[in-house]
Amino acid sequence: MTLTMSTALLTDHYELTMLQAALRSGAAHRRAVFEVFARHLPGGRRYGVVAGTGRVLDELERFRFSEEELTYLRERHVVDDDTLAFLADYRFSGNVYGYREGDLYFPASPIMIVEGTFAEAVLLETLTLSILNHDCAIASAASRMTNAAGKRPLIEMGSRRTHEGAAVAAARAAYIAGFASTSNLMAGYAYGVPTAGTAAHAFTLLHDSEKEAFEAQIASLGRKTTLLVDTYDVAEAVRTAVELAGPELGAVRIDSGDLAAAAQEVREQLDALGAFDTRILVTSDLDEYAIAALAAAPVDGYGVGTSLVTGSGVPTAALVYKLVARETATGRLEAVAKRSVGKPSRGGRKQAYRLLDDAGNVETELITTGGLAPEGGIPLLHELVRDGQVVGREPLTAARERHAAAVASLPQEALHLGRGYAAIPTEFA
Amino acid sequence: MTLTMSTALLTDHYELTMLQAALRSGAAHRRAVFEVFARHLPGGRRYGVVAGTGRVLDELERFRFSEEELTYLRERHVVDDDTLAFLADYRFSGNVYGYREGDLYFPASPIMIVEGTFAEAVLLETLTLSILNHDCAIASAASRMTNAAGKRPLIEMGSRRTHEGAAVAAARAAYIAGFASTSNLMAGYAYGVPTAGTAAHAFTLLHDSEKEAFEAQIASLGRKTTLLVDTYDVAEAVRTAVELAGPELGAVRIDSGDLAAAAQEVREQLDALGAFDTRILVTSDLDEYAIAALAAAPVDGYGVGTSLVTGSGVPTAALVYKLVARETATGRLEAVAKRSVGKPSRGGRKQAYRLLDDAGNVETELITTGGLAPEGGIPLLHELVRDGQVVGREPLTAARERHAAAVASLPQEALHLGRGYAAIPTEFA
């Protein structure tokens, strides 16, 4: 079940036809610098969270045109024979720099920079954007949810509400942004994300009574299990649950109704039954606003599905992959930018730094196109690929810790859930 | 590059722990009927479009727990040894019925029914919902766009704005719902969807002048190519384009600005230059509303990205997978339904029919739990899997034709883009 499939066809048709035309004109071999950035933070968000970088590195290594891919391209006349010959030998041999996973980004932050020939760098546009646009969108939404939840743990359980492959990536991105666990087993297998689960209404309905269902679950999974108590009548279910499991019952899950009121009633009932340590887990279309609204309710954990995997209203991060510099006919590297209406971009190979105030809080995202590093500025771009070799891998837990530290460094108002401007200004030097 | 990876871990943790508990209680071997349906059509939509069924069948055949998956589950203590033994031998041996791809659905339409033992049917919940929730959401949005575009062709080009695997499925779903082509090469490879592409601003910026870029593209791809004309100045680019390619130039693409005004100006310019047959393709954050607003503009085709792959505001279809009947201790099949607040569901094994009025327009979605088929009612559920064997495969073009016919059978008001109620009522008998 190792993921060995080639990723080369996860690519837009025009990348290959542009390659063909550039091979013909000779410009394909010019050095080029592409940059991934967002013109704006969507949805009135205060910050974005970088996620997917590690997946880009994994999939870059599998970006190969084998005979199967080449046969398809030949038979469909997608590109000519010279281009097919180029693709057969294709190996990315350039450099990639990027923000680290879990770090934050703001408008115009150059979260990834790809340097190589035009030919080798243009081919990576579609796949790189697919991964980063999805994973950053999910991590950015997840970060708002973990902020809203405070110290209470969040379980990611949205697999069923998104594409089956996206589900795995979403679980990974949510973990980076502070979720405690996921329901998705493939995310556990592929990325080591802790997995968790409770039970569904179907399990209760399958048995001849709720009591029989609870007995079966406790007998098999132990008293520390989480029992789902809203299939029929919540109060009756809670009574049955504690009767069967005793006060050692791990948790109950409530998945419908007015969650704040239900949690309050269930807490009182559990306490009255002596089940002081039995936790209350709530689910049912939660998003960061609903989580925040439950802050005062006696809830011990949240399960979040749909809103997490759909980016809570922002399912894609609006990142673009733009040529910012290219070699001229005379061999010089020149900054370039198009002049389309309403779609600003800035040419040139960037450096990026985060500047802190005296108290250690982040103050400015500084983007430069050369010159000295600003004093005390934290460099944000790290080497990920050198001469085609991946050098920037790191454990997922490093990204998770980085995210927690980065959020803690933000001004307090950056954590407000309402629509607003970027938490810190982006400045150009 | 054949897709041979096991799909078994694209599954929620709790499906396996419920299985474990049900194996222990013995209830796992009871016959069970699960149903996939939507309680409501999200976003004020008038109808939904079924898509993903074919992918469910493909992935069902790869739903196997091999030694790699079992080792992971054992090492992480996800389930016990008895359950691992069950999983090692797992083959779905039941029956699946479903609406055909490309067909429409309405609230409560039972678009898929899975019959088997509880053990074998519950395991398919997560994967089935992941596929159908994603693909139906995309197809439902795509259908609104093809309605808005009328006879003008649509190119799906949203791969970069969604997860790389979701991109392939989105291209497939869009094709079912009437899109002419996709930019996604994997969708061409895996599903035979026609692929297409133009060129990016990077290609123009790479060359020393726009003229050199256009020359290179025409030399390599021929006069029928599509030139991107908004990198610098549109009028100048169009003049250069026709100067180089002559009136045989295939098309120009405009990707920014006021598309209606720009298309009008470019059409006039092309006509003045004698390029009467050169088509105008527009792109730039189009959705069904923007497409409809361009109906009077001289546009020959639309490229749609972000809004297509994100379901145009509705990225998931809100489909659920619910136990509707199960075998009792005495061996009888009994209808079941939970009683959760605000989450209605109806028990029982369903049949579904579409009823037409005398003019042949659809009038009612009729759902029954037994009894005779209504006279003249079109049965909507078809056999997809019989005793574990896939029997319901069909070519993607069949789904595409079915969708076109199904939309044509709707009352005219069902095609309105504004928010509203389901186009036809769902009735229960």
Automatic annotation (TrEMBL), chains A, B:
EC number: 6.3.4.21
Residue ranges the record marks as coiled coil: none
Lineage summary: Bacteria, Bacillati, Actinomycetota, Actinomycetes, Streptosporangiales
Family membership noted in the UniProt record: Belongs to the NAPRTase family.
Function: Catalyzes the first step in the biosynthesis of NAD from nicotinic acid, the ATP-dependent synthesis of beta-nicotinate D-ribonucleotide from nicotinate and 5-phospho-D-ribose 1-phosphate.
Name by which UniProt lists this protein: Nicotinate phosphoribosyltransferase
Pfam families reported in the protein's UniProt record: NAPRTase_N
Source organism: Nonomuraea angiospora
Catalytic reactions of this protein: 5-phospho-alpha-D-ribose 1-diphosphate + nicotinate + ATP + H2O = nicotinate beta-D-ribonucleotide + ADP + phosphate + diphosphate
Residues making up the signal peptide according to the UniProt record: none
Post-translational modification: Transiently phosphorylated on a His residue during the reaction cycle. Phosphorylation strongly increases the affinity for substrates and increases the rate of nicotinate D-ribonucleotide production. Dephosphorylation regenerates the low-affinity form of the enzyme, leading to product release.
SUPFAM superfamilies per UniProt: Nicotinate/Quinolinate PRTase C-terminal domain-like, Nicotinate/Quinolinate PRTase N-terminal domain-like
Keywords in alphabetical order: Glycosyltransferase, Ligase, Phosphoprotein, Pyridine nucleotide biosynthesis, Transferase
Domain Nicotinate phosphoribosyltransferase N-terminal: 9-133
GO molecular function: glycosyltransferase activity; nicotinate phosphoribosyltransferase activity
Pathway given in the UniProt record: Cofactor biosynthesis; NAD(+) biosynthesis; nicotinate D-ribonucleotide from nicotinate: step 1/1
